[in-house]
Write a structure and sequence with these properties.
The chain has about 150 residues and is of the alpha+beta class. The protein has two domains: about 70 residues, Winged helix-like DNA-binding domain superfamily/Winged helix DNA-binding domain (Arc Repressor Mutant, subunit A); about 45 residues, Ferric-uptake regulator, C-terminal dimerisarion domain (Dna Ligase, domain 1), CATH 3.30.1490.190. The protein contains five helices and five strands. The strands form two sheets. Strands 4-3-5 form a three-stranded mixed β-sheet, with no helix packed on it. The protein starts with 5 loop residues before the first helix and ends in a 9-residue tail after the last strand. Bound molecules: zinc ion (2 copies). One zinc ion binds next to β3 and β4.
């Protein structure tokens, strides 16, 4: 992994502080990695990458940092892709399309929330806080390799 430049590091530290988190080196490094990632990495992926710059970070620390980022709203945990939880730097509502061949998770805008709310038959009095949608299948690159 590339170490974040001083300017990026400062900006990430400020964001962490804005979200009520102390800007430890581990948090800055992992938030930076997440922001640069396009793959919705698992904690183990992130641990492997962060070790290149910070050889002493334990896997447990990576999980703790991720928990704190998720709790602070700076990251989200995706648990509906099957297999281990994956992480992403955006916490705004969006859907996923999951390719079962290459495992890639595509981000999609959450445009169906309204219609879904309107057509769902929910238990009486149930307050919806969040809608999770994952489309499963094969992406264009994998469609021909069954
Ligand atoms: Zn694919
Ligand atoms: Zn996503």
């Amino acid at each position: 992994m590339q170490m974040p430049g001083a300017q990026v590091e400062e900006q990430l530290a400020a964001e962490l502080a804005d979200h009520g988190l102390r800007a430890t080196r581990q948090r800055v490094a992992i938030l930076n990695l997440l922001r640069r990632s396009t793959t919705h990495p698992t904690a183990i992926d992130l641990h492997r990458q962060v070790l290149e710059a910070y050889p002493n970070i334990s896997r447990k620390t990576v999980y703790e940092v991720l928990d704190s980022l998720v709790a602070a709203g700076l990251a989200a945990r995706v648990t509906d892709a099957g297999e281990p939880a994956r992480y992403e730097p955006r916490a705004d509502p969006h859907y996923h399309a999951h390719c079962r061949i290459c495992g890639r998770l595509y981000d999609l805008p959450a445009t169906a929330d309204g219609p879904l709310r309107g057509s769902a038959t929910l238990p009486e009095g149930f307050a919806v806080e969040h809608i999770t949608v994952t489309f499963r299948g094969r992406c264009a690159r994998c469609r021909d390799n069954i």
